[in-house]
Amino acid sequence: SRSAGIVGLPNVGKSTLFNALTGAGAEAANYPFCTIEPNVGIAAVPDPRLDALAALFRPEKTTPAVFRFVDIAGLVEGASRGEGLGNQFLHHIREVDAILHVVRAFDDPNVTHVFGSVDPVRDIDVIETELILADLETVGRRLERTARQAKSGDEAAKKALEGLERLKAHLDAGRPARTFPAGEEEQALLRELFLLSQKPVLYIANVDEASYLDGTPTSHVRAIEARAEAEGAEVIVLSAALEAELRALPPEERSAYLAAYGLEETALDRVIRSAYRLLGWRTFFTAGEKEVRAWTIPAGARAPEAGGVIHSDFERGFIRAEVVAYDDLLRAGSLARARELGLVRLEGKDYVVQDGDVITFRFNV
Ligand code: GDP
After folding, report:
1. Residue 153's domain spans which residues?
2. pLDDT digits (tens, 9 = 90+) for 74-110
3. NCBIfam families from the entry (predicted)?
4. Within this chain, do residues 136 and 181 fall inside the same structural domain, yes or no?
5. Roughly how many angstroms between the first and final C-alpha of the chain, as a whole number?
6. Is the interface score ipTM higher than 0.95?
7. Same domain, 102 and 229
């Protein structure tokens, strides 16, 4: 399933956010594909369309798409050299699709800061430097190997060498791999290297409750936004402590609280929505009397690939897909009526699945 790793310095609010995001989330036991460790939690992806489909089909079961969050603690200065939880930490990052970089933007004398003062941009640089240093090791090893191959006359290696050297220079200058201007060949290289600083990042500015509810960006928030903007990244402002409190409320009280402050959604909703946008993910649905369910696919996925997310047979034995757009189905009021109105299309293996498609797969076993 899709995943994001929560990183940041100690005491910035990572665990608080992790608990708020996953605390009242989906029952882990229902998702056997998720290995559950103490630092791994899952959250149901909120999607009002799923609720509307459930109201239409009245299925025995409604299953949201899920998102995995990994609380990656233990990053301190020196992690790339193996200090703190060092390597274990880096291993966890390699496995996630995206990084939520939590930055402390709350002043609270009762919560110690590892560097004794609140300075979000310095903090971001410390974390980023560790990731870049780890990547430099990876690139350095590859560079040595490629140089040897080039020396013994390997033409492909000679070509790759130049790109590797440019990449190394980029990292040496303290810049993350995700801002490396890669040509086609270098992109292939990057795909093989699995660099940590290449993962897409969402910055999370963790502010105190009062400034969150007030809504005016503090100087800390503005500093984080400027830093993020320089690399075209997004910032989500939230208060982890407040989110944790909201999580603990029954749903009606939570809605009432949000409404009282003019807020439309919890931070969980915003985090997941931003992650979907950042990573270019799309949602499609399957719907019947037994189950109504949401599934996640990458943008541009064709019908057989979408089927494969459900079961490998759907992809291998794909014949065709019966597709109706969510809006059309809702307007028609039922699948049968949508068929009568000619809103249900038969699509073949080249069909690019659209966000919100409701699909029935036809396949051979
Ligand atoms: P981690 O080490 O990054 O996982 O940080 P924790 O989530 O354990 O939080 C460290 C401390 O900061 C705890 O005492 C939290 O209660 C506190 N904390 C977390 N978020 C907030 C916040 O939004 N406001 C305030 N005032 N304290 C917070």
Report:
1. 125-198
2. 666 666 666 555 566 777 888 899 999 999 999 888 8
3. redox-regulated ATPase YchF
4. yes
5. 25
6. no
7. yes
